[in-house]
């Protein structure tokens, strides 16, 4: 009979907040508004707490548990995964975050050409004791931004660039990744497509030029919508512009909690 | 009628070797030895040549073409994608590379626990004129390596670490990703698993200790198998050890061409 | 006279928590315990708050201000940089973080061979209103860890690997990067060197084997020292092992506040 | 007396092309046209060949040798490092590549504001037998590019973005990093600065708009200058635009040899 070192007592009297596995790549099926579900590949972190009197956790159980998940990964299913983690590891608290590229078919604005856009998403769940699990959705949305200052002071043209808007949100009722994507894309100078024919390119160029935005404008316009949405209980939003005139980014960040 | 700038003549008299799109994320289905096919997510680069008298290529066609691919991506299907690229862009040469994590179910050596291992793979196709397309398969295999020097000079123990073996190969007949993975895993001190129970952990620890390998040994043992395989017409193999006693890697590389 | 768009009023009534520049690369001189100072290269983020009635901040002032810093960057000098940021931008709060590789000469344990070890460090300062600035030091220390379970259950050998221990700390009085490095290196199975001759390699192999540690052990042993140090007012410590038998990491995390 | 495993004979009859260390971080001093030299931080790879009859190389000697380099790292000094590597390791061939951010002070075009721009550079040296060492300089230059198609077809505005131009070159006589930077910056729609005041921003916006360039144009205009420079014996140039209207890049590549 092999000794179980992890199960031995520990005398340092120091509980551990999080212990588990990090950076595991795993294929996942996620809920998809248009198609029911989609296949993608995730990077997963899974942790539980460890009380002061226990020497170690059982790392293999995290991976085994992930293998048994047989429903699409979504904000809905995180709670039961967290409960399974606590039961399997004998823990009081559990944490999981699952990051994956998520694809949405977009139709170009003029020629109706279809293409897939990719958005990096993370769903994060934490469960602590008997309280309801804390669930956060994070969505990164690439956008176009045109600089209002550059447009105003220049006789023609205006510098613009790709930016990334990152929204994290807590909520009462389930929200779709697509909802976050849509509201961010409407707050940018213009949204981004994978396929644009020439008529589309004229459209997005002119739309963006008509709609110049600082990173400050983008985070405020996203924040405005989220503040007005009573389903959102907390959010943070950042905008990062990969400036075309600099080798660094412009950045803005707002965090907001209801009550 | 909109002017087509890309179609205008160019007078600099300089042909371009490769022009196209880089870093496009796209969900793909790839051929899988055990299950027929698997869903994963790829990063794709697609280029064609541009003759000296043409000003620009048509970037949107690359993405549109990728959307029309409706057979599993594999070494087999690259040739027809390359032909489609040349036809669509009016080019003489075409290049595509598709990188993706590929998952293989592995059973642990003692307790038969099942888990998925991920291997980063790239399939690369180049077609130049009327010649047969040049196809290369690249597979990165994480491994365990135990240092033979450390084992020999120490009274007990031996430093070991995760390493990555990267094989690129050209071949006569189709080869499976699984074949490359298998031969590399046999050339390491021990192969790697996502789930190992205690009996498995004892097994892999002792197997690795019994089988110490420098990076030099690993590349030579992989090379030996590939040299003896008459289906392989060219290969390179590198081994990189993320040394546990240093903050840099040990590295070895062999390239070999059959005549 | 050019219009100053950033200076225009804003009517959305939404203050911005952080706005500024991100990802700027800049050569810096940092305080060094052994040599007084050392030259390295930093990545810098600088933000201020923006009140609800202001449309935008002045991005160029951040970079100009960084150029005027003429004392070595250190925990000591952050406060004055933060004050300069608030004054220059007319802001109430300011935040800066500066990340850089930091080099320490280490002598190998047996042959006394000298080599440089690199540690990724970040110094973070935040100033909010009239309160004393909040300063955090983060140091990432690569280490060797030997698995206690693997050692115990195996007839010979034990899997080990490179790991990274990340300490973040708040403190009363100035602390050296070297102090954090030293206490972490003593909590690992063995510390890491850039140059090891054979006699040294025997030493570190045997020392590590005699001193097996889970990630749980490493964070607890680091935490124990930091809890006992009354100069430390808050800390977090994580340990991540790049497992040699898996393609994912083992991870543990403790956060502690001296309330 | 400890056994020297690396020095034992090998019977697999397979020589190794490259063996050594990879990913070592090291502070370096590099030659600087304006100031004589500058301090920066490099990532270094160093390899030698290993004949078929030798089991292993001596990894610690690479790091020791790097520590003895006491002249500024430059294209000039690589040859002597390569000779030292061959002598120290008893090898016939040696390879080193040293990558580092390199800083150049630039003055903004209107307000003469000074700022530092960073350029990622690599110097690569290979020595094989008695032949003259093969030295390559690689410089990555971030630039602004305005899309000629978008400008032409749109009633106003034009999408633009940050791009990166990567030049690799072989040459007869020493060339400065600054020379490559200058010629690339002149081939872009506009060059990039770290500090731009409003008058400067107007200038670069209008200059870029007046000077639209596809990736195809940028690589051709760089190639044109390099082809005409009889000091350059070989070069490759790529341009990658981080498209503001897409989430992927546009890319072009030319390679040219002065036979």
Describe it for me?
The structure is a homotetramer of 259-residue chains. With 259 residues, chain A is α+β, with helices and mostly antiparallel strands. Chain A folds into 2 domains: 1-99, Urate Oxidase; 133-259, Urate Oxidase. The first copy, chain A, is built from 6 helices and 9 strands. Chain A has helices at 59-68, 78-89, 148-153, 177-187, 198-209, 215-228; strands at 16-32, 36-50, 93-107, 114-128, 134-146, 160-171, 190-191, 232-241, 249-257. In chain A, strands 1, 2, 3, 4, 5, 6, 7, 8 and 9 form a 9-stranded antiparallel sheet that branches. In chain A, a hairpin with a 7-residue loop joins strand 8 (232-241) and strand 9. In chain A, 54% of the residues are buried. At the A-C interface, strand 1, strand 2, helix 3, helix 6 and strand 9 of A face strand 1, strand 2, helix 3, helix 6 and strand 9 of C. Strand 1 (16-32) of chain B pairs antiparallel with strand 9 of chain D.
CATH superfamily of the largest domain in chain A: Urate Oxidase
Total domain count of chain A: 2
Oligomer class: homotetramer
Name of the level-1 CATH class of the largest domain in chain A: Alpha Beta
Q: Indicate the structural class of chain A.
A: alpha+beta
Cα gyration radius of chain A (Å): 22 Å
Rounded to the nearest angstrom, the distance between the terminal CA atoms of chain A is 56 Å
CATH topology of the largest domain in chain A: Urate Oxidase
**Using DSSP, what is the number of strands of chain A?**
9
Mean pLDDT of chain A: 95
Low-confidence stretches of chain A: none
């Amino acid at each position: 009979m092999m000794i179980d070192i992890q199960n031995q007592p520990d005398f340092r009297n120091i509980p551990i907040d999080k212990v588990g596995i990090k950076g595991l790549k795993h294929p996942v099926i996620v809920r998809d508004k248009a198609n029911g579900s989609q296949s993608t590949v995730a990077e997963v972190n899974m942790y539980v707490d460890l009380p002061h009197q226990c020497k170690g956790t059982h790392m293999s159980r995290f991976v085994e548990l992930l293998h048994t998940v047989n429903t699409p990964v979504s904000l809905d299913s995180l709670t039961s995964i967290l409960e399974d983690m606590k039961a399997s590891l004998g823990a009081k608290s559990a944490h999981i975050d699952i990051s994956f590229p998520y694809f949405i078919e977009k139709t170009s604005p003029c020629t109706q050409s279809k293409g897939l856009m990719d958005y990096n998403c993370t769903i994060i769940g934490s469960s602590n004791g008997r309280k309801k699990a804390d669930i956060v959705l994070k969505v990164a949305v690439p956008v176009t931004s045109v600089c209002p200052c550059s447009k105003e002071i220049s006789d023609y043209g205006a510098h613009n660039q790709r930016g990334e808007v990152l929204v994290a949100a807590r909520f009462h009722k389930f929200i779709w990744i697509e909802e976050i994507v849509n509201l961010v894309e409407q707050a940018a100078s213009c949204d981004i497509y994978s396929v644009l024919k020439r008529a589309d390119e004229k459209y997005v160029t002119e739309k963006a030029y008509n709609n110049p935005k600082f990173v400050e404008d983008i985070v405020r316009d996203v924040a405005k919508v989220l503040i007005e949405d009573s389903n959102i209980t907390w959010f943070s939003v950042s905008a990062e512009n990969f400036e075309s005139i600099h080798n660094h980014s412009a950045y803005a960040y707002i965090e907001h909690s209801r009550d």
